[in-house]
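User: quick one, sequence for these tokens?
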């Protein structure tokens, strides 16, 4: 599976976003260790604070279907004008199930399937003092 394919799957998933309040659709695609891909889209709520980001939807779906180890994460934000990386809450949740080396690809909104940012979980969440208390991935 190439990162372009994973990004394209994230983009396809962004179409399922439920984002009537922000109008900002996000799709995430997680490449699991077994080679399968789990996707998620953001789900907003009229009580705004209950919104769930695409990344956490993907993690929750993967973990609750028995997939707890991953090879890569791709994120698509077709409504963005600027690069978008996971929010702080998502970084913490992703890091529970991913080692610092896990590659994270953030799509260039102007070029579907092409990454604008290529980073890692460790770069997104440095100085993670609680890392040793979590699972060992
Ligand atoms: N959002 C995500 O789903 N993932 C991100 O990485 C950034 C933010 C969602 C939350 C909300 O529904 C909308 O994008 C605007 O913040």
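Assistant:
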């Amino acid at each position: 599976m190439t990162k372009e394919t994973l990004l394209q799957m994230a983009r396809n998933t962004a179409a399922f976003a439920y984002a009537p309040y922000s109008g900002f659709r996000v799709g995430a695609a997680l490449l699991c260790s077994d080679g399968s891909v789990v996707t998620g889209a953001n789900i907003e709520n009229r009580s705004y604070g209950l919104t769930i980001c695409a990344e956490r939807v993907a993690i929750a779906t993967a973990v609750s279907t028995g997939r707890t180890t991953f090879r890569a994460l791709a994120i698509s934000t077709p409504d963005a004008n600027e690069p978008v990386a996971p929010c702080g809450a998502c970084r913490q949740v992703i890091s529970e199930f991913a080692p610092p080396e896990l590659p994270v690809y953030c799509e260039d909104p102007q070029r579907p399937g092409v990454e604008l940012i290529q980073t890692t979980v460790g770069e997104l969440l440095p100085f993670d003092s609680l890392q040793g208390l979590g699972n060992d991935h």
